[in-house]
Amino acid sequence: MPVRVSIKPLDWESAFFQRRCGLIELDGEVPLSDSLFAGYDIVQAKVLSQQTAELDALTEQGFRLVEGEAEFVLGIPSTGRPEGIRIARKEHIPALRDAASGAFAQSRFRAPWYQPGDSGRFYAQWIENAVLGTFDHQCLLAVDEQGKMQGFISLRELPDGRARIGLLATLPEAQGLGVGQRMIEAAADWCRARRLTRLHVATQLGNLPALRLYHRCGGVIERTAWWLYR
């Protein structure tokens, strides 16, 4: 039975990267074929790990594996608000952009599909938007006793009573100081204040420090998936 799909234009990404980008949706009505890709520079597909028939069909159409992804769900424990957490403000944007541009250099927006530097620009813009409350709704900072930034986390409230972590990064000089766990605790506090019941986060399968962090914080893997590009 042929795999049936549709393609969703990714307008924001297309404008940002100056390349026509689309996303395969696997619940469409059109059989997967070369003709669907006309006019696109990059077509992305996110396929659950158990969708082996779809994975095989996309591979036959020239799609290449980019990265694996694990999605965690975390409960909202009734712990107190952690110390050393601040709401990011506009004056923090330059430092946040610089940190984000280096923290996610090996993301799925890397070469050869995108230009060198595109990944850094993308995540720098993402964290700026989070400070401004667009896409993600808030950015929180972890700081030391002198107020120096140690890490950041962006959060988005979903319409069904859940929340999602967008970006989370610990600065290199703060590695090993428990900053990641403190930011997860801050995210839980943010959720409690909004009566949100679950916190979701996705990370690369190759990002072992993040996988360990979310497991240590009580996260349960909800699903795994593969990103493929053509």
Automatic annotation (TrEMBL):
Acetyl-CoA binds at N207. Signal peptide: none annotated. The active site is at Y214 (proton donor). InterPro entries: AcTrfase_WecD, Acyl_CoA_acyltransferase, Bact_Acetyltransf, GNAT_dom. Its EC number is 2.3.1.210. Keywords: Acyltransferase, Transferase. GO terms for molecular function: N-acetyltransferase activity. The keyword rRNA-binding does not apply. Residues 83-230 form the N-acetyltransferase domain. Catalyzes the acetylation of dTDP-fucosamine (dTDP-4-amino-4,6-dideoxy-D-galactose) to dTDP-Fuc4NAc, which is utilized in the biosynthesis of the enterobacterial common antigen (ECA). Homodimer. Belongs to the WecD family. This is dTDP-fucosamine acetyltransferase.
